[in-house]
Amino acid sequence: MKVIETKDLTKRFGSFTAVNAISFDVEQGEIFGFLGANGAGKTTAMRMLCGLSKPTSGFGMVAGFDIKKDTEKIKKSIGYMSQKFALYDDLKVWENLRLFGGIYGVPEKEINPRIDRLLETLGFEKEKKTMVRDLPLGWKQKLSFSTAIFHEPKIVFLDEPTGGVDPAARRQFWELIYDAADRGITVFVTTHYMDEAEYCDRVSIMVDGKIDALDSPTKLKEKFKVQSMDDVFFQLARGAKAKE
Amino acid sequence: MEALKGLSFDVEKGEIFGVIGPDGAGKTTLFRILTTLLLADSGTAFVDGNDVIKEYKEIRKKVGYMPGRFSLYQDLSVEENLKVFASIFDTTIRENYHLIKDIYQQIEPFKKRRAGALSGGMKQKLALCCTLIHEPVVLFLDEPTTGVDPVSRKELWAMLKKLKKEGITILVSTPYMDEAGMCDRIALIQDGAFMKIDTPENIVDAYDQTLWSVKSAEMSKLLKDLRSNAEIKSCFAFGETHHVTVGNMSMEQLEKYLKDEGHTEVNIKPIKAGIEDCFMELSQAS
Asked: Are residues B86 and B149 in the same domain?
């Protein structure tokens, strides 16, 4: 089942075309890596998919809803996490989860049992009443991801979720992503760590507003005849710089 | 909270010295003390022979500091920003143009544009020009590559190599472990303490664990199965393979174990550690 479909999706700001007729699909349960250089149009594209920005032209469906008309329905069906975690430092761990559960309309009776189950899975029961500001960065990140998927969305959008954490925490975080995908949640993720591109089922690379490559990491490496995703990225993005 | 816990280290003239570690490790605190913007509770520090407390004015004249969030004037143009920085340090753009030429030429076509309207990559280049315009003896760059794409990161490192040739000493912090190889020496920092200071080559050579890369058709299941084997000391995902450190076991034994667990296309290879492997090993040990 396709959870994201776009056809010639375009966004212009005045005379500048930030996203130039991109077409792609994402299947349910996929981990989809959305890569590109700074300024390639990733954030603009992602904002349109999340219902935060209206496309200039083209078509897009997210979780079965039209991104031009049904933006409110889309917002209920997705989760979002960026590097700047949207957690409340002055609330305790469980209060943050309680708040997000309420905002996303998780049934009242289900919220508390779900908080307990989640904290148990994370091995985080002892920190239930800890203030978020007192948590180490790696834990904040895990909690931030957990609040983003607390309402069991169809898709979770992760915008550079792993910046700045230590190598072990970065990897533990990816294990949470795998678990979410195993449960059927589609993961749409941007990153500047090219080793993380290898963890994705498929990867798209945006260059100057267009999707220049889209395939599994293995096939992309074969196609470009290189050893790593870093080299694939470098070949595509360097081509763009040369045109500037 | 103790942000820095008794750090001692030296940097040689003309070195590129990397301070590498995650957010919250103390990198920014260290840079702010060395650039005289923050006072240490105890201990001493000298920059180019000057005491960071008594001779802070001397230090401020001769170091360049680029904080993690570029301190550009958003409402001034590219050219105006550069002029402001030059005049603060009582110099002119022309006087030290040779230092910034390579970098500035890339943003010169936009010299009338407001700094606030530049892309991230161009802001970074302008900030670096502003930091260099008074010909500093020591350059402090606090996470210049954070949030920057891999291609722009490589460009920045190429610029730093050129500055090194001009004789400028560079202290640079980064959370990206793969940038360690670009430095002459690095300090691995975690929780306010240095775990190791050495050349990247020596740090990698000193790694004393048996390290293998492991692959199979089902990578997610492989991670769990590897961790449930008692002879596997640690196991982490590393791009398209998993890295494991092993106790008393041969590669044949591990291969048999994985096949018994139902894995196909099993591939195990001994590998040389990278900086990330070393960082994780050191932080587990400490």
From this structure: yes
For B260, list phi and psi in degrees, rounded to 5. Answer: -65, -30
Supply the ipTM of this predicted assembly.
0.81
How close, in Å, is residue A220 to chain B by CA atoms? 13
| CA distance linking residue A194 with residue A232, whole number of Å | 10
Question: Domain boundary at B200, B221, B244, which?
Answer: B200
Together in a domain, B226 and B115:
no
Report pTM. 0.88
Which of B19, B20, B23 to mutate against chain A (most A CBs within 10 Å)? B23
In the DSSP assignment, the letter for residue A92 is B
B188 with B252, same domain? Answer: no
Q: Which residue of B has its CA nearest to A160?
A: B147
**Pairwise CB contact (< 8 Å): B239 & A166:** no
Please name the residue of chain A whose CA is at the shortest distance from the CA of residue B221.
A178
* List of chain A residues whose C-beta atoms are within 8 Å of the C-beta of residue B154: 234
Q: Are A118 and A146 in contact (CB under 8 A)?
A: yes
Domain that holds residue B129: 16-200
Quick one: B253 and B121 in the same domain? no
Q: Which residue of A has its CA nearest to B243?
A: A171
Q: Do A164 and B175 touch (CB under 8 A)?
A: yes
> How far B16 CA lies from chain A's nearest CA (Å)?
21
- Nearest CA distance, A66 vs chain B (angstrom): 31
pLDDT tens digits, B209-234: 999 999 999 988 999 999 999 999 99
Of B200, B217, B246, the residue at which a domain comes to its end is: B200
Structural domains of chain A, ranges and CATH numbers in brackets? 2-243 (3.40.50.300)
Of B120, B238, B240, the CB nearest to A38: B120
Task: Enumerate the residues of chain B whose CB falls inside 8 A of the CB of residue A237.
Answer: 149-151
Residue A243 in this model has a pLDDT that exceeds 70 = no
Give the domain CATH number at B160.
Answer: 3.40.50.300
CB contact under 8 A, B239 and A228: yes
Q: What is the pLDDT of residues B156-195, one digit of tens each?
A: 999 999 999 999 999 999 999 989 999 999 999 999 999 9
**Tokens representing residue B34 in the block:** 């060395």
